Amino acid sequence: VHIGQADWLAAQPKMDTADSPEAHTLGVLQQQGRIHPVNGDYALGDAVQILASPGETPGHQTVKLSAGGQTLYCIGDLYHHTVEIAYPQWGVRWADMPTMQQSRAQFVEAALAEDAIVIVSHVHGAGQLAEVNGGVQWRTLERSA
Q1: Residue 84 CB burial class (10 angstroms; 0-12, 13-18, ≥19)
Q2: 25-41: per-residue pLDDT in tens?
């Protein structure tokens, strides 16, 4: 598990409590030697990159897959609803919104330039970003049979 260094450090005190979710998840993975804290962007090979995208948390990450001239982003908690794509200043109250807006702007620029497919943890299905009337909107991809 490649986890953002800042998020890993924030989890440490919580892992000291035996019945905490962090102890039951990250603690177990740590005991198995499966935790790999990452600072900034990190390449897992030619086709897989972990990109720092702080805002939701200081160590939040996005995964970028590239192959055959196509790009897929798995963006986790960068957005919680598609309306936040059109209104990037909107977000959850616990996020560092200025930092999240920077991460969103970098992501949007790259995703549009690469005509990337996007998967968002809190949004059903895959989609793409589209420039519409000077803004950006979500377009859900239709499933083929």
Answers
A1: buried
A2: 999 999 999 999 999 99
Q: Compute the Cα dihedral for 21, 25, 30, 32 and give only its sign.
A: positive
Residue recorded with tokens 């970003």: 129
pLDDT at 128 > cutoff 90: yes
Pair of tokens at residue 60: 């939040």
Q: Which two tokens stand for residue 127?
A: 């989609």
Domains of the chain: 1-39 (no CATH), 40-140 (3.60.15.10)
Q: How many whole angstroms separate alpha carbon 136 and alpha carbon 129?
A: 6
45 in Cβ contact with 27 (< 8 Å): no
Give the confidence band of 144 by pLDDT, cuts at 50, 70, 90: confident
